[in-house]
Design a protein that fits this description.
Layout (H helix, E strand, L loop, with lengths): L2 H28 L3 H9 L2 H16 L3 H30 L13 H19 L14 H21 L3 H36 L1
Helix pairs in contact: 1-2, 1-3, 1-6, 4-5, 6-7
Organism: Rhodanobacter humi
Keywords: Membrane, Transmembrane, Transmembrane helix
Protein name: DUF1453 domain-containing protein
Length: 200
């Protein structure tokens, strides 16, 4: 699977995830049927599972260096999430902080952020540039920015629904995605300039 096709499929899946999340959330809090609540709560998981399957296929079909890079990055990300889970668990057990069950929603995003950072670090060590201006889709930065703005709108909705805790978390996630979009855009602009000067 080439990089551009992989990016398109991941972006489409995450866009569907955001749409389903926005649509299911009001219905989830409006219904009293336990079975319907369970169904609405689990529907957003489906596009995420598809993204995980895409990642597995991409790693499976890559060469040995790429597989090793991904394995090390996933190991670092798993260690990070495990350490944060232990810290949070002990603080919660000690009564220092109060953590609700919905904190589990953030395990996968934190794992992916840790994986992304570790992948870039490991790629540099192996002499591979993980962000290539020619390899990826040109609209990746705008995709991140769009997801961030969508989360910002959803956060405002949650704030209007008198759920300030969830709204603040959504605002933080929105800022992260907007910052990620800005960072990817700057990296690609810099890579393009270096390529132009190198070819001159």
């Amino acid at each position: 699977m080439n990089n551009k096709r992989y990016e398109r499929q991941v972006m489409l899946s995450m866009a569907i995830y955001m749409v389903v999340l926005f649509a299911a959330n009001p219905l989830l809090h409006a219904t009293r049927s336990l079975s319907l609540k369970a169904l609405l709560a689990l529907v957003p998981v489906l596009p995420v599972l598809y993204v995980i399957a895409l990642m597995w296929r991409r790693i499976r079909d890559s060469d040995e260096l790429e597989q090793r890079t991904n394995l090390v990055a996933l190991g670092v990300a798993a260690a990070l999430v495990s350490a944060l889970s232990l810290v949070g668990g002990f603080l919660s057990a000690g009564g220092v902080v109060q953590l609700k069950g919905d904190v589990l929603i953030w395990v996968f995003p934190v794992l992916m952020v840790g994986y992304g950072g570790a992948y870039k670090w490991v790629s540099r060590r192996y002499g591979v540039d993980s962000v290539c201006a020619e390899d990826g889709s040109a609209w990746v930065p705008w995709y991140f920015a769009g997801i961030g703005l969508s989360m910002l709108v959803f956060g405002l909705y949650l704030w209007h629904q008198n759920r300030p805790g969830s709204a603040v978390v959504m605002f933080a996630a929105a800022l992260f995605f907007i910052a990620m979009g800005t960072w990817v855009w700057r990296r690609r602009v810099r890579a393009r300039r270096l390529a132009e000067h190198g070819g001159a």
